[in-house]
Amino acid sequence: MEAISKNFFLFLSNNKLLDRFAKRFGARFGADKIVGGETFSQAIPLIQKLNRDGLHVTVDHLGEFVNSEVEARERTHECIESIHSIAHHELNSEVSLKLTSLGLDINRDLVMENMKLILEEAKKYDITVTIDMEDSTRCGDTLEIYRELKEKYKNLGTVIQSYLYRSEEDLQALNECQPYLRLVKGAYKESGKVAFIDKEHVDKNLKRLIKTNLVNGHYTAIGSHDDAMIAYTKEVAREHGIPKEQFEFQMLYGMRNETQKELVKEGYKVRVYLPYGEDWYGYFMRRLAERPANVAFAIKGIFSK
Ligand code: FDA
Prior knowledge:
By secondary structure, the chain is of the alpha/beta class. The two termini are 28 Å apart. It has one domain (55-268): TIM Barrel (Alpha-Beta Barrel), CATH 3.20.20.220. 41% of the residues are buried. 50% of the residues lie in helices and 14% in strands. The structure holds dihydroflavine-adenine dinucleotide.
């Protein structure tokens, strides 16, 4: 049953017709519990509240299915504006983005140009930018772009997904560029040709990646709500004498709020990933796929509008 609902929501997340429908009718379907508003201005009070609670933030301007150069440039401009707002309001926040929203599916020169514009602005204010990882067909290009840009920009991170067979090798290959990596399980629908399908292997591989990256001495973000991954990270840190300054826990906005606060109390750095924007549909569907319990508030959302 769980597998069926997961596949169903992942199928919906890729449905461009429903994406257009959701945007056109502006229905929120309960998305406001996990999305910080439709504009950056709406997200500002939420970021300030999270900061007051001792939480760091990374904002993500939601956007997928960008197919025109004009739209990719608009997304770039919006991202730069969010960097200016972070600096202007003195928010404790980084920025996350997806390369497809900057034109990855259009052409590589366009993405590089857009990324450089963003990274130059972020550098001025010492703000780190993390490139989210999308589905496996984009993984190779994303990591190549990451490596090329990382030579010039220190303030750049990316994501490695433990469900992909290739990830252990990718992690080793990135070793020499002092990567800033967020390690996650992976959120897209992938085939058994490229990814572990069973949870046990995905979890085991995430533990392996966490340990390798920490022991290699690199700053590591653990992007997971799973108590087992949190406990494992603490254990590796203890065993290998890794200081709390070398890693952080990252969780999605609206998920495990109490756990986030407990970790802060224990002296760990916790960063909340706060998505915002009108284009919330694909993100929302992937979260439903991960945790069918989230369906409850979505259904409530539909009927309360
Ligand atoms: P998982 O879904 O495996 O659940 C394991 C256990 O954790 C559950 O059985 C339950 O006990 C507990 N749990 C999980 N969620 C809970 C909740 N909401 N409330 C209570 N308990 C809960 N993916 C990707 O492909 N590319 C990316 O760039 C990113 N970026 C990213 C950033 C951040 C900050 C996070 C947290 C996640 C991502 N992801 C991602 C998503 C990631 O790949 C993964 O799909 C989800 O985090 C779900 O996996 P978890 O490890 O969180 O727990």
